[in-house]
Here is the input.
Amino acid sequence: MTPHVIEPDPQAGAAVKAADRAHVFHSWSAQGLIDPLAVAGAEGSYFWDYDGNRYLDFTSGLVYTNIGYQHPKVVAAIQEQAGKLATFAPAFAVDVRSEAARLIAERTPGDLDKIFFTNGGAEAVENAVRMARLHTGRTKVLSAYRSYHGATSTAINLTGDPRRWPSDTASAGVVHFWAPFLYRSPFYSTTEAEECQRALQHLEDTIAFEGPATIAAIILETVPGTAGIMTPPPGYLTGVREICDKYGIVFVLDEVMAGFGRTGKWFAAEHFDVVPDLMTFAKGVNSGYVPLGGVAISEKIAATFDKRPYPGGLTYSGHPLACAAAVATINVMADEKVVENAAHIGETVLGPGLRELAERHPSVGEVRGTGVFWALELVKNRETREPLVPYNAAGEAAAPMAALGAAAKKNGLWPFINMNRTHAVPACNVSEAEAKEGLAALDAALSVADEYTA
Here is the structure.
């Protein structure tokens, strides 16, 4: 792809920003305290503003542009589909919808061969939980602290971070538990094996005290994303699978962020040789070009609704434009070996590069990740592991992370920052040169974070 020639147009940028400030209500924000960047365009791993500033996107949008921005084959597929059949109701069989489902089912693990399409990840979680409850006749759902499952009613209650608090009704049938995270172990573990065993025992104890016969499902992000990219220790997900089988509980894996190449596999579950009963997906399924998500359903759960109507649906379920984008994206990923590239970049560039940064920067407490899915845990003190900013910090308390972000942007890197972490989550087809460019900018930004260490 030929690099786009950036022609600054500050006047146009000012008009875009003025219209935004007058009429757009932004998510997760105090409207009067934000100053959104006016974006003029994007291509590949980069985007730019109207002042001519170009940024390497180490966020992949919201960790969804897995094949980068404006891939010509996907853009062409959307254009072609718009000319052929721009939209059609979900009750009908449509060729591109069927093909998208087939391509997804080919790549999901085990017998997850039926695909229920949604408009995004939160709706996928909502419907997966509904399926689990109807299949089991039970109500409760267990989910982990340090998780994110979406902002709709059930999904936000399942979420295990502070975004849940304002909407938590304490009556949604959700019970939270601690998943393994050795660096900040709630179980006083010193090894991954200890953390795995103790986390599984904690989960089974939670089930025992909640009442196994009341629990419909356990939902976990295969590798938690926004919460910190904490790869589960060997044996943990297999152990959860065994616990679910023991008590007749539906096992749901949330692959909305970790799926479609992000971890160097089509789905993160492949790293752990585990097959859930339901799997949610979105984001990378079509690189976010048109909203699409879904639930991959096992044979056992699909059979529940063979003669019993499933009481759920969406006007835009399997929208032809979204499905055309998914077909093109999946084919691009296969043809251009995008998943293999994600694994290669993680093994040879990002992993070694981030660990080398950690050796030189006292603000880095831990590096963790795989593929193009990495997090740096930033601390004030490596010995005490005190976070660089407090949990859920805002305003002045979050100043060190704000300074890190400003330094990264000054060096042409758009960072993903959450609490005391910065994540390295570029496109899955990021080049070696681009990944190294990002590491160099991050190196400079971490020097600013170092100034806040003790």
